[in-house]
What does this fold into?
Amino acid sequence: MVGAEDDSEDDNEDDNEDHREGEQDPEILRERYQELLQELRVILPGVQVLFAFLLTTPFAPRFGDLDDVERTGYAITLAATLLSMIILLTPVAFHRLTSRQNRRTRVQMAIRFKLAGLAVLALAVSVAGFVVVRFVFGPVEGVLMGVGSAVAVLLLWVVFPLATRVTDHHHETS
It folds into this structure.
């Protein structure tokens, strides 16, 4: 399972280092890292299913009916899904292959990769919606679906969480 192993034994040395450097409490960093790995456990199966579906799509009888725009969209979706999966798996590989030193850096790096993977996944989902709706209903509807999904992702994955974070911070300081 992704990141299932407990690294508490390896972290005793860098627990002291975290305190010396004035970094966050090692226990908080451990919890943040475990939460991040859990988020990746939730995200990755969906990305893998999308990728598997995309791998089989060219073998469907009507795939040959796609025009050049739709084929390009398909290629972008396939590439973005693959790249998203690779980026989202990077923190796990990094966790397994590097020393357990400097937990704070590992957490920050993993968060950046998760966000980058989600951004590329947003592209894949939006373009996939564009391709399917364009193929079934037409070019205008396809654009509406692609733009609509991009806006939905932006609002739900970025704006809403940031607004909630600002509101939570405001309530904590009041």
Remarks:
- Residues 139-173 form the longest helix (35 residues).
